[in-house]
Amino acid sequence: MASSDAPIQIGRVALIVNDLDKVGDFYRSAIGLERLSGGGEELVLGAGDLPLLALRRDRAARHRPREAGLFHTAFLLPDRAALGRWLRHAADRQIGLDGASDHLVSEALYLRDPEGNGIEIYADRPRSAWQTDGRAVRMDSIALNLQGLLDAADAPWAGAPAGSVVGHVHLQVGNVAEAETFYMNRLGMDRSAHMFGASFFATGGYHHHLAGNIWNSRGAGPRSADAAGLAEVVLAADADALAALGAVEFSDPWGTKLRVEPKG
Questions:
Q1: Where would you tag: which of 11, 114, 144, 230 has the fewest CB atoms within 10 A of its CB?
Q2: Per the domain annotation, does 56 fall within a domain?
Q3: Full-prediction pTM beyond 0.85?
Q4: Domain assignment of residue 92, given as a range
Protein backbone atom coordinates (compact mmCIF):
# COMPACT_ATOMS: atom_id res chain seq x y z
CA MET A 1 0.00 0.00 0.00
CA ALA A 2 1.47 3.31 -1.10
CA SER A 3 0.68 5.09 2.18
CA SER A 4 1.89 2.41 4.59
CA ASP A 5 5.40 3.76 5.14
CA ALA A 6 4.29 7.27 6.12
CA PRO A 7 5.21 8.48 9.64
CA ILE A 8 1.64 9.78 10.05
CA GLN A 9 -1.29 8.34 8.14
CA ILE A 10 -5.05 8.09 8.51
CA GLY A 11 -6.30 5.49 10.95
CA ARG A 12 -10.07 5.90 10.82
CA VAL A 13 -12.87 8.45 10.64
CA ALA A 14 -15.85 8.99 12.94
CA LEU A 15 -19.12 10.50 11.69
CA ILE A 16 -22.16 11.79 13.54
CA VAL A 17 -25.34 10.60 11.82
CA ASN A 18 -29.07 10.91 12.45
CA ASP A 19 -30.14 7.48 11.19
CA LEU A 20 -27.53 4.97 12.30
CA ASP A 21 -29.28 1.96 10.79
CA LYS A 22 -29.76 3.52 7.35
CA VAL A 23 -26.26 4.94 7.08
CA GLY A 24 -24.68 1.78 8.46
CA ASP A 25 -26.55 -0.37 5.94
CA PHE A 26 -25.29 1.87 3.14
CA TYR A 27 -21.63 1.54 4.12
CA ARG A 28 -22.04 -2.23 4.35
CA SER A 29 -24.03 -2.82 1.16
CA ALA A 30 -22.72 -0.07 -1.11
CA ILE A 31 -19.14 0.40 0.11
CA GLY A 32 -18.55 -3.15 1.30
CA LEU A 33 -17.39 -2.50 4.85
CA GLU A 34 -17.96 -5.14 7.54
CA ARG A 35 -19.54 -4.62 10.95
CA LEU A 36 -16.78 -5.06 13.52
CA SER A 37 -18.53 -3.91 16.68
CA GLY A 38 -21.22 -1.63 17.97
CA GLY A 39 -23.98 -1.12 20.45
CA GLY A 40 -27.09 0.99 20.29
CA GLU A 41 -25.46 4.35 19.65
CA GLU A 42 -22.26 3.55 17.69
CA LEU A 43 -21.33 1.20 14.88
CA VAL A 44 -17.73 0.42 13.91
CA LEU A 45 -17.10 -0.77 10.36
CA GLY A 46 -13.94 -1.90 8.62
CA ALA A 47 -12.17 -4.21 6.21
CA GLY A 48 -10.85 -7.49 7.54
CA ASP A 49 -10.21 -6.75 11.20
CA LEU A 50 -9.12 -3.14 10.60
CA PRO A 51 -11.60 -0.47 11.79
CA LEU A 52 -12.02 2.32 9.24
CA LEU A 53 -15.26 4.08 10.11
CA ALA A 54 -17.22 4.75 13.30
CA LEU A 55 -20.81 5.95 13.02
CA ARG A 56 -22.25 7.72 16.08
CA ARG A 57 -25.96 8.32 16.42
CA ASP A 58 -27.31 11.80 17.23
CA ARG A 59 -30.87 12.23 16.03
CA ALA A 60 -30.82 15.97 16.79
CA ALA A 61 -27.62 16.80 14.87
CA ARG A 62 -28.11 19.12 11.88
CA HIS A 63 -26.66 18.84 8.39
CA ARG A 64 -24.66 22.01 7.66
CA PRO A 65 -23.04 21.62 4.22
CA ARG A 66 -21.47 25.09 4.09
CA GLU A 67 -19.60 24.76 7.36
CA ALA A 68 -16.06 23.56 7.85
CA GLY A 69 -15.79 19.83 8.34
CA LEU A 70 -15.83 16.85 6.00
CA PHE A 71 -15.52 17.12 2.22
CA HIS A 72 -14.97 13.39 1.77
CA THR A 73 -13.57 10.25 3.35
CA ALA A 74 -11.39 8.44 0.81
CA PHE A 75 -11.27 4.64 0.96
CA LEU A 76 -8.12 3.32 -0.70
CA LEU A 77 -8.44 -0.13 -2.27
CA PRO A 78 -5.37 -2.35 -2.68
CA ASP A 79 -5.23 -2.28 -6.48
CA ARG A 80 -6.92 -1.25 -9.73
CA ALA A 81 -8.65 -4.61 -10.12
CA ALA A 82 -10.43 -4.07 -6.80
CA LEU A 83 -11.53 -0.61 -7.92
CA GLY A 84 -12.86 -2.12 -11.14
CA ARG A 85 -14.78 -4.72 -9.14
CA TRP A 86 -16.33 -1.97 -7.03
CA LEU A 87 -17.31 0.04 -10.12
CA ARG A 88 -19.07 -3.01 -11.60
CA HIS A 89 -20.82 -3.49 -8.27
CA ALA A 90 -21.93 0.17 -8.28
CA ALA A 91 -23.26 -0.19 -11.83
CA ASP A 92 -25.09 -3.43 -11.05
CA ARG A 93 -26.63 -1.99 -7.87
CA GLN A 94 -27.39 1.35 -9.54
CA ILE A 95 -25.40 3.22 -6.92
CA GLY A 96 -25.29 6.83 -8.06
CA LEU A 97 -21.91 8.49 -8.51
CA ASP A 98 -21.17 12.19 -8.13
CA GLY A 99 -18.10 11.97 -10.35
CA ALA A 100 -15.03 10.10 -11.52
CA SER A 101 -11.51 11.47 -12.02
CA ASP A 102 -8.04 10.47 -13.08
CA HIS A 103 -5.74 12.32 -10.66
CA LEU A 104 -2.50 11.06 -12.31
CA VAL A 105 -1.42 9.48 -9.02
CA SER A 106 -4.71 7.64 -8.62
CA GLU A 107 -8.07 6.78 -10.15
CA ALA A 108 -11.08 7.86 -8.12
CA LEU A 109 -14.85 7.51 -7.94
CA TYR A 110 -17.07 9.83 -5.90
CA LEU A 111 -20.44 9.47 -4.20
CA ARG A 112 -22.33 10.44 -1.03
CA ASP A 113 -23.88 8.49 1.80
CA PRO A 114 -27.60 8.90 2.62
CA GLU A 115 -26.90 11.91 4.86
CA GLY A 116 -24.72 13.73 2.36
CA ASN A 117 -21.25 12.80 3.65
CA GLY A 118 -18.79 12.71 0.77
CA ILE A 119 -17.02 9.47 -0.14
CA GLU A 120 -14.16 8.70 -2.49
CA ILE A 121 -13.30 5.15 -3.55
CA TYR A 122 -9.86 5.04 -5.19
CA ALA A 123 -6.78 3.06 -6.13
CA ASP A 124 -3.28 4.46 -6.38
CA ARG A 125 -1.01 4.12 -9.35
CA PRO A 126 2.46 2.78 -8.50
CA ARG A 127 4.52 5.43 -6.76
CA SER A 128 7.17 5.02 -9.45
CA ALA A 129 4.68 6.51 -11.92
CA TRP A 130 4.07 9.69 -9.90
CA GLN A 131 5.63 12.91 -11.12
CA THR A 132 7.24 14.96 -8.35
CA ASP A 133 9.12 18.20 -7.86
CA GLY A 134 10.85 18.01 -4.53
CA ARG A 135 8.11 17.36 -1.99
CA ALA A 136 5.38 18.45 -4.42
CA VAL A 137 3.43 15.73 -6.22
CA ARG A 138 1.81 16.51 -9.55
CA MET A 139 -1.92 15.87 -9.43
CA ASP A 140 -4.75 16.82 -11.76
CA SER A 141 -8.42 16.02 -12.36
CA ILE A 142 -8.95 14.68 -15.86
CA ALA A 143 -11.45 12.32 -17.44
CA LEU A 144 -11.32 8.79 -16.06
CA ASN A 145 -11.36 5.86 -18.46
CA LEU A 146 -14.39 4.14 -16.96
CA GLN A 147 -14.48 1.34 -19.51
CA GLY A 148 -10.83 0.55 -18.88
CA LEU A 149 -11.52 0.44 -15.18
CA LEU A 150 -14.51 -1.86 -15.65
CA ASP A 151 -12.33 -4.13 -17.80
CA ALA A 152 -9.79 -4.34 -14.95
CA ALA A 153 -12.33 -6.15 -12.76
CA ASP A 154 -11.14 -9.74 -12.36
CA ALA A 155 -14.01 -11.14 -10.26
CA PRO A 156 -17.33 -10.08 -8.73
CA TRP A 157 -17.20 -7.58 -5.87
CA ALA A 158 -17.19 -9.42 -2.53
CA GLY A 159 -16.85 -6.49 -0.15
CA ALA A 160 -13.91 -4.28 0.70
CA PRO A 161 -10.84 -6.53 0.46
CA ALA A 162 -8.33 -6.96 3.24
CA GLY A 163 -5.75 -4.22 2.92
CA SER A 164 -8.31 -1.51 2.26
CA VAL A 165 -7.61 1.62 4.32
CA VAL A 166 -8.73 5.21 4.66
CA GLY A 167 -6.08 6.66 2.38
CA HIS A 168 -6.90 10.31 2.97
CA VAL A 169 -9.49 12.69 4.34
CA HIS A 170 -10.43 15.86 2.48
CA LEU A 171 -11.72 18.67 4.70
CA GLN A 172 -13.71 21.83 4.21
CA VAL A 173 -11.93 24.81 5.78
CA GLY A 174 -12.56 28.52 5.97
CA ASN A 175 -9.18 29.72 4.72
CA VAL A 176 -6.47 27.77 2.90
CA ALA A 177 -3.55 29.80 4.31
CA GLU A 178 -4.73 29.16 7.87
CA ALA A 179 -5.09 25.47 7.05
CA GLU A 180 -1.51 25.39 5.78
CA THR A 181 -0.25 27.02 8.97
CA PHE A 182 -2.02 24.46 11.14
CA TYR A 183 -1.41 21.26 9.20
CA MET A 184 2.19 22.06 8.30
CA ASN A 185 3.39 23.79 11.46
CA ARG A 186 1.33 22.07 14.14
CA LEU A 187 0.98 18.58 12.65
CA GLY A 188 4.33 18.65 10.86
CA MET A 189 3.02 17.63 7.46
CA ASP A 190 4.47 18.65 4.10
CA ARG A 191 2.39 20.55 1.58
CA SER A 192 2.39 18.00 -1.22
CA ALA A 193 0.29 20.01 -3.70
CA HIS A 194 -1.67 23.22 -4.08
CA MET A 195 -4.37 24.30 -6.49
CA PHE A 196 -6.91 27.10 -6.57
CA GLY A 197 -8.84 26.95 -3.33
CA ALA A 198 -7.17 23.84 -1.88
CA SER A 199 -3.93 22.56 -0.37
CA PHE A 200 -2.87 18.97 0.18
CA PHE A 201 -0.77 17.65 3.08
CA ALA A 202 1.18 14.44 3.56
CA THR A 203 4.01 12.67 5.30
CA GLY A 204 6.42 10.09 3.92
CA GLY A 205 6.14 11.30 0.32
CA TYR A 206 2.51 10.22 -0.13
CA HIS A 207 0.36 12.35 -2.45
CA HIS A 208 -1.87 13.42 0.46
CA HIS A 209 -3.23 12.20 3.75
CA LEU A 210 -5.21 15.36 4.48
CA ALA A 211 -6.45 18.21 2.32
CA GLY A 212 -8.35 21.41 2.95
CA ASN A 213 -10.48 23.34 0.49
CA ILE A 214 -12.77 26.39 0.50
CA TRP A 215 -14.93 25.32 -2.46
CA ASN A 216 -18.08 25.16 -0.33
CA SER A 217 -16.86 26.84 2.86
CA ARG A 218 -14.93 30.04 2.05
CA GLY A 219 -14.82 32.25 5.14
CA ALA A 220 -16.40 29.62 7.41
CA GLY A 221 -16.07 30.19 11.13
CA PRO A 222 -15.95 27.60 13.91
CA ARG A 223 -18.19 24.58 13.43
CA SER A 224 -21.57 24.47 15.12
CA ALA A 225 -21.75 22.34 18.23
CA ASP A 226 -24.82 20.52 16.89
CA ALA A 227 -23.45 19.75 13.42
CA ALA A 228 -23.84 16.31 11.89
CA GLY A 229 -21.02 14.92 9.77
CA LEU A 230 -17.41 14.65 10.86
CA ALA A 231 -16.85 13.87 14.55
CA GLU A 232 -13.10 13.29 14.39
CA VAL A 233 -10.23 12.04 12.26
CA VAL A 234 -8.00 9.51 14.00
CA LEU A 235 -4.39 9.57 12.80
CA ALA A 236 -1.89 6.73 13.22
CA ALA A 237 1.69 7.82 13.93
CA ASP A 238 4.97 6.01 14.41
CA ALA A 239 6.88 6.53 17.65
CA ASP A 240 9.12 9.36 16.42
CA ALA A 241 6.27 11.28 14.82
CA LEU A 242 4.10 10.84 17.91
CA ALA A 243 6.88 12.16 20.16
CA ALA A 244 7.46 15.15 17.87
CA LEU A 245 3.79 16.15 17.99
CA GLY A 246 3.89 16.53 21.76
CA ALA A 247 0.12 15.96 22.07
CA VAL A 248 -2.49 13.45 20.99
CA GLU A 249 -5.56 15.65 20.55
CA PHE A 250 -5.86 18.65 18.24
CA SER A 251 -8.51 20.94 16.81
CA ASP A 252 -7.90 22.86 13.61
CA PRO A 253 -8.88 26.56 13.42
CA TRP A 254 -12.49 25.60 12.63
CA GLY A 255 -12.95 23.08 15.41
CA THR A 256 -12.40 19.93 13.38
CA LYS A 257 -11.05 17.34 15.83
CA LEU A 258 -8.00 15.18 15.16
CA ARG A 259 -6.74 12.50 17.51
CA VAL A 260 -3.41 10.68 17.20
CA GLU A 261 -2.82 7.07 18.16
CA PRO A 262 0.35 4.98 17.91
CA LYS A 263 0.66 2.67 14.92
CA GLY A 264 0.29 -1.01 15.53
A1: 114
A2: yes
A3: yes
A4: 8-262
